Amino acid sequence: MKQMLKRLLATMTAAVLVSASVLAVAADEPGKGKTVRLAQSDSMGGNYVLTTITAEALKQLGYDVKVSTVNSTLFFQAAAQGDLDIAMDLNFPQRQPGFDKVKDKAQMVGKGSIQGGGYNGYLIDKKTADKYNITSLEQLKDPKIAGLFGKNGKAELINCDPGWSCGDVVEYQLDKFGLKDTITSVRGKYEALMFEVVAREKRGEPVFFYAWIPSWMTNALVPGKDVVWLPTPFDALPPNVPNAGSASIPGVPGCAGNADPCRMAMAVWNWNAVANNTFIAANPAVKALAEQISFSRETWSAWEKAISTGGGSDRKIRKMAEDWMNENKTTFDGWVAAAKNAG
């Protein structure tokens, strides 16, 4: 009888130990045996580094990760249908109309991966701004001021690529602000035009362009040091561009005349994560991870500059991601640990 009890006790103890071991593995790898279909935009930039870092964190959670590159419209459709699970790099509010069509089947996760968000606006070189006391976009109604950035009393404004919605914002605002007579909007291949703008500024020549932060442009020409943001006279957005609130933003570094708040072209924007509802409900670890991942504007700008000036090969993207993870190991490990606890 005693032997039977001993054997029964040993069997029960072994079972408890196995169960505890299984639970420990499950807690350590909540994604074990699961696949995440992770999407990234077809517009390369620092968002590709974001995707690479996200994929590595998911792998450390035990997930098998499949990365697809698709445009935002196709992603929303695929996420709604359950063909893709999550993307980390949707630009909001620009993508709000597409998201609204599928928000019954997909959801935004977290508050965005740019700490404090990004902003868009008009910039001129600081040298000219200081010399002629230019502190607002509205001053370019004066042909004498506008002529500093072009010829025959008309400024040349480097605008976005044809087809980019930011270019439509600029065209709309030039009309609403009464600047069509003194500003010519130049729309071509934006990056090529901006390389020339950077070169001109370095030669000490006046420059006038539309840009956003974080980006390589505002890394190459730093607001407050090389250039200044020109405050706009009032909020104005075309009907097809979602309004995310006031364009009057506090604490903008490099705003002309040290204006605070600084009225930009539009309200703060961000890269946001969007996920299929069913997937995210079944994977709390992924949700917890996506809610945490964020980077400083300076980090984003550095990535954008490295990609725009030196190319964006898979190898280079991977190295930038690895460098960030090595230099910020405590932060990265903290994201993974919190995700494991949630899973």
TL;DR?
This protein has 14 helices and 13 strands. With 343 residues, it is of the alpha/beta class. It has 2 domains: 33-114 and 271-342, Periplasmic binding protein-like II (D-Maltodextrin-Binding Protein, domain 2, 3-Layer(aba) Sandwich), CATH 3.40.190.10; 119-263, D-Maltodextrin-Binding Protein, domain 2, CATH 3.40.190.100.
Helix content: 40-55%
Reading off the top of the CATH hierarchy, the class of the largest domain is best stated as: Alpha Beta
Average pLDDT rating: 92
For the biggest sheet, the summary is: 5 strands, mixed
Total helical segments: 14
| Order of strands across the main sheet | 2-1-3-13-4
CATH architecture of the largest domain: 3-Layer(aba) Sandwich
Q: How many individual domains?
A: 2
Return the string of H and E elements: HEHEHEHEEHHEEHEHEHEEEEHHHHH
Structural class: alpha/beta
Total strand segments: 13
The backbone outline, from C-alpha atoms, is: elongated
Going by CATH, the homologous superfamily of the largest domain would be Periplasmic binding protein-like II
Give the amount of beta strand, in percent: 15-25%
CATH topology of the largest domain: D-Maltodextrin-Binding Protein, domain 2
Low-pLDDT segments? 14-25
Tell me the distance between the termini.
44 Å
Radius of gyration: 25 Å
